[in-house]
Structures are given as C-alpha cells and as structure tokens.
C-alpha cells in the first residue's frame, strides 16, 4: 500500500499538474506541496480534504489507507468537531473513552472544540479505534 506522499505524487503525475499549480489550488506554498511529496511534513485535515476533493478520491485512498480509487464526489464536510461528536454519539462512545482507548489526548479534543484544524495523523488512531473511515469521520460520506 502506498503512503500519502507516494499517492500524492502519483495523482499529480496522472493529472499532469505541477507543484505550483496544486499549491495555488489548495492555498499553500509550493514548498509545502513539495514537502508533502517528500514526506517531510504532516498534512492538516482541511488541506487533505481540498486535495481529495480536487482529485475526486476518498481520504482513505489519498492517505494510502486503501487502494480503491473510486472517482466520485463526496459530501461537503461540516465543522470537524461537530461531526466528530456526532460520530461518537452514533457509536455510543464518550470523549473519556476516546481519550483513554483511542490514543487521543485531551489537548487534541480541546483544540478541536476550539475549531483548530487537526493533523490527519492524529485522526488515524481515532478511525482505527472507531473502525470507520476518515471520510465518514469528517462527514464526506454518509
């Protein structure tokens, strides 16, 4: 299975898009795009969603968590913390349980509640604990 940086590079080659063009689309610097391609830095959720929307793929595919490239349009994401809490409620899991068993510290939860943008890497243990996809967690799929 590919990693995020490998998958991003493949998608860019397939779409014949340069780093500067993608940087302009996402709203980041070309240095950031090149760092993603080299695996030098983590990606924030909001930027990962922009990339997945641009490439019409799932976050799971983009992050290299599965190899199923399904070209489709996903739902517009609600604010992350509200969606996160909705998922926890549907699963019958408290924030205490997710902190204790889901490898997420209270600081992350507090920051998310304040509207801060999570790094995708901090969400991986959550989706694994909840046995869901990144796209479901953020509200891109029903």
Walk me through what this model shows.
With 142 residues, the chain is mainly alpha-helical. The chain folds into 2 domains: 4-62, Orthogonal Bundle (434 Repressor (Amino-terminal Domain)), CATH 1.10.260; 80-138, lambda repressor-like DNA-binding domains (434 Repressor (Amino-terminal Domain), Orthogonal Bundle), CATH 1.10.260. Helix content is 61%, strand content 0%. The chain has 10 helices and no strands. The protein has helices at residues 4-15, 19-26, 30-38, 45-55, 59-62, 80-91, 95-101, 106-113, 120-130, 134-138. α2 (19-26) crosses α3. It is globular, with a radius of gyration of 15 Å. The protein starts with a helix and ends with a helix.
What do the pLDDT scores average to? 93
How much of the sequence lies in strands comes to under 5%
Q: Work out the count of structural domains.
A: 2
Structural classification:
mainly alpha
How many strands appear in the DSSP assignment?
Answer: 0
CATH superfamily of the largest domain: lambda repressor-like DNA-binding domains
Main sheet attributes: strand count, strand direction, barrel closure: none
CATH fold-level assignment of the largest domain: 434 Repressor (Amino-terminal Domain)
Return the CATH architecture of the largest domain: Orthogonal Bundle
Order of helices and strands: HHHHHHHHHH
């Amino acid at each position: 299975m590919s990693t995020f940086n490998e998958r991003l590079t493949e998608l860019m080659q397939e779409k014949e898009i340069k780093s500067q063009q993608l940087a302009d689309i996402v709203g980041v610097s070309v240095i950031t795009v090149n760092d993603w391609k080299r695996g030098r830095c983590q990606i924030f959720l909001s930027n990962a969603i922009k990339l997945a929307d641009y490439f019409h793929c799932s976050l799971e595919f983009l992050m290299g968590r599965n190899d199923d490239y399904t070209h489709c349009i996903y739902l517009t994401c609600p604010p992350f913390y509200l969606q996160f809490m909705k998922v926890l409620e549907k699963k019958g899991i408290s924030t205490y349980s997710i902190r204790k068993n889901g490898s997420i510290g209270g600081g992350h939860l507090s920051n998310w509640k304040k509207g801060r943008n999570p790094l995708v890497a901090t969400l991986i243990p959550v989706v694994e604990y909840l046995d869901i996809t990144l796209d479901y967690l953020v509200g891109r799929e029903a």
